[in-house]
Amino acid sequence: MTRQQILDLYFMDARSKLIDIAAFLDRVDRGEGEPDFRLKAFRNALAELHRGEPERAKGVLMSLSDPTVEPIANAPGKGAVGAFLG
Amino acid sequence: MRYIEPHGHMVSRVTDDYEAMVLAGCRAVCEPAFWAGYDRSGPEGFYDYFCQLTDYEPKRAAKFGLPHFTWLCINPKESEDTKLAEEVIALIPQFLERPNVLGIGEIGLNKNTRNELQILERHIDLAARHEQLILVHTPHLEDKHKGTRLILDALKADSRIQPGRVIIDHVEEHTIAMVLEAGFWAGITLYPESKTTPARAIDMYEVYGGQRVWLNSACDWGRSDPLAVPKTAVEMRRRGHTEETIDQLVFHNPLRFLAQNPRFTVR
C-alpha cells in the first residue's frame, strides 16, 4: 500500500486513539493522590513513538516488558498489569 | 470465505456463537484446555473437564455442523501447584486416543516461575513420549517477552521436539521474530484490548511473512470475539490482499499445521 492509501484507511482511527491517550493523561493529571508505577512506565513507552524507524510497536512493548531473564521463585499472583514494576 | 478457528474456548461460549461462526465460514474449531477462571480443587475437576472437551463439546458443535477438536494439559495458571499438576499430567494419556484430541496444549508459562517451568518441561516430555503436536501459551503483557524466551529455551533443550510440530501462540511484535527464526509456528491472537488488533496482526503478517503463521480469536469467558478471524480477513480485503492470500492465511495455514495429526480433517 502507498502511504496515501494507508492514511486514507487508518488516519481517522489513529487520530481517535491519539486523542484518547491525550484525554487519558489529562484525566490522570486532574485526579488526586499519587499514581503507581504504571504512569511512569506509560510515559516512558510514549517516548518510543519518536523513534525514526518502523519498529515503534515493538519498542513500546519492550518498554513495558520485564527485562529480567531468570525464572522467579514464586508467582506473586495470576494476573499481569501491563507494565513491569521493576 | 472459509476459515479454521484454531484456538477457541468454546465451553465458555453460547450456542449463538457456534451459529455465527458457521455462518461466517468456519469449517472447524480447535479448543485447547485452559484455566476456568478459578482454580479447580483437585485432579477430578480436570478429569471431568477432559471428558467435557472430548465428549460433550464435540457433540454440541456437531449440532451446528462444526467439527470440534481439542488439546489437553494443565494450564500454566494452575501449574504453580506442582503436586496437582503432576496428578493431572498422569491423567492425560488415557485421553490421547480419543478421536478429537490433537495434542498437548495450551501449555506454557504465566508468571515465569520455576514451578511453571518445571511443569512445562513435564508437558514437553509427555508430548515427546507420545509423539504429540504441541500448542504453547505465552504469558500476558509484561511477562510475554521473558516468558517466550524461557519457553523457546525449554523446547530447544529437548532434542526430541521438532519445531515444525509446535505452535507458539499469542505472539506480538516483540516476540514473533524469535519464534519464527527458531523454526516454530507462530499464532497471532486477536483480542479487543490485550494481544493484537486485526490491523496489527496483518502488519505482522506483511512484515514477517505468513508461511508458519495462523490467526485465532482465543475466544473465552473474558472480553473476546469469536468472529475475530473472519473480521481480520475482511480487514485484509480492505488493504487489497487477494482472496487467495486470505484463504492461505485463515484456512490453509492452520490446516497445514493441524493435519500433521491425521485425526484433523476438514471439508
Question: What key attributes describe this structure?
Answer:
heterodimer, A: 86 residues, mainly alpha, 2 domains, 3 helices, B: 267 residues, alpha/beta, TIM Barrel, eight-stranded parallel sheet, 9 helices
Description of the structure:
The complex is a heterodimer of chains A (86) and B (267). With 86 residues, chain A is mainly alpha-helical. Chain A has 2 domains: 1-33; 34-64, no CATH class. In chain A, 53% of the residues lie in helices and 0% in strands. The mean pLDDT of chain A is 96. Chain B is of the alpha/beta class and 267 residues long. Chain B has one domain: TIM Barrel. Chain B contains 9 helices and 8 strands. An 8-stranded parallel β-sheet of chain B has the order 1-2-3-4-5-6-7-8. Chain B is globular. The model of chain B has no long low-confidence stretch (mean pLDDT 97). Chain A binds chain B through residues 1, 9-10, 13, 55, 57-58, 61-62, 64-69, 71-84, and chain B through 35, 77, 80, 110-117, 139-146, 149-150, 172-174, 194, 199-200, 203, 238-240.
**pLDDT averaged over residues of chain A:** 96
Q: For the record, what CATH class of chain B applies?
A: Alpha Beta
Q: How is the main sheet of chain A built?
A: none
Oligomer: heterodimer
Q: Return the domain count of chain B.
A: 1
Summarize the structure.
Chain A has 86 residues and is mainly α.
What layout of secondary structure does this protein have?
The complex is a heterodimer of chains A (86) and B (267).
Chain A: H1 3-30, H2 37-46, H3 56-63
Helix pairs in contact in A: 2-3
Chain B: E1 3-5, H1 15-24, E2 26-32, H2 43-62, E3 68-72, H3 82-91, E4 101-108, H4 114-129, E5 133-137, H5 144-156, E6 166-169, H6 176-181, E7 185-189, H7 198-208, E8 213-216, H8 228-238, H9 243-258
Parallel strand pairs in B: 1-2, 2-3, 3-4, 4-5, 5-6, 6-7, 7-8
Helix pairs in contact in B: 2-3, 3-4, 4-5, 7-8
